[in-house]
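Q: Fold this one first, please.
A: Sequence and structure below.
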Amino acid sequence: MKSGKTVIKSILALTIGSTIAGCSVNPVSPRKQIPEEEIKKESTQKPDIELTSRPLTFKTDMEELAEKIIPDYTLRKIDKSYEGNEELGGRIQKSGTTTSIIYGEIGDKAVRIDEKQAAAKANEWIKTAFKGFDVRQLDDKEPLVSYMRKTMLGDEPEESVIGYRFEYINEYDGVKIQYEGISVMLDDSGIQYGTIEWNEFEKTDAAEHNRLVQKVDFELSKILLANAITKENEKLGFDETEEARMANHVELVFAGIGEEEYIPAWYYEMEDGRTYYVNCIDGQVSTP
């Protein structure tokens, strides 16, 4: 799978890199080449990108994404690592800056506790689970809640909730940092699994330069991705399918798709299982 992703990523870089010419980040400071007034004038112009393939379709209404304010800067990560609290029991595992505590697995019986009770248990556990983490960072955050379900097959299939998952997302200026946060899973018997990846971030030294670069809004990202999917399918010999063009989920995130920087990008999850980033700074399309 890893080699496949590498092939796809290289194809996308070749096919889309030149599409948004005039919008890519130049390693040489533009201030040394042309006056700042001209740069600012050019940065307000929309690149003329043509839809050369079938447009994307969406499972849900994405209208609010058009109103998103795209950050005009990139981020640099400052690594933070947290120790698991051994007094709470469980098996502690560490990988880089990720710390996980494992107690068991979600059972197969329907839970009796409701979502509110489960949230209270998860929040109480988080308060002492990870040494060094300031839980006040969660004060103004609402967790994302998902339900683990089990379906009993029969003449009339029955579905029941067998566990809950609560996720607190790490953000910068209200924009999600991809794959950063705290996740807790639990059922009637208590916490079964918890993990944290919560680093600190700061604007990069290139922030002033990034303000002069064309930002890729949601409408432009749809065109760039649609064209890239066509090129990708042609190169890999894939048949065109409706699933390849249907987006199940789209969001604006900071993604670690550079060497050191976290870059604002549109993250797409497609119906066929493929995922993509559309870089908001230079329009590059890549795969996670």
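Q: Good. Now the second chain.
A: Here it is, same layout.
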Amino acid sequence: MTYRVSFVCTGNICRSPMAESVFRARVEEAGLGDRVEVESAGTGGWHEGDGADPRAVAVLAEHGYGTDHVARRFQASWFARLDLVIALDSGHRKTLRRLAPTEQDAQKVHLLRSYARPSPDDLDVPDPYYGGLDGFEECLEMVEAASEGLLAAVREEMEGRAI
């Protein structure tokens, strides 16, 4: 049985593809690549079919991460196949929980930075789109800081389900 995680931001060209790339690397490093699927999407469809923002790609590459990404919009029907939906900010979380067909689906939605240890006061990952490379670097730092805690939570849930 496969455990499925989807990262969601606004347009699926900055934050969520960065989170997808970093978490996929952590999953592979942990030897769980055959048991955990990682993907991303956006709450809106403005960039559907586009690649990741070149600044996101550059920052990921500079830090040893790859990305082969095509933006897409999150669909409510996906909740049925997903185990965990990771929102990059509280606005995304609110949108996703409203989109969830059931209360059980809404409970699958969590903020990425809630997995960081220690947990920061502000759980939102700021949108770097309208800024420079420093915003993308900051985004990557936040994603990396939360990825280990997220991986631990996924492992724990997988063990509980005997996946």
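Q: Anything worth noting on the second one?
A: The longest strand covers residues 3-9.
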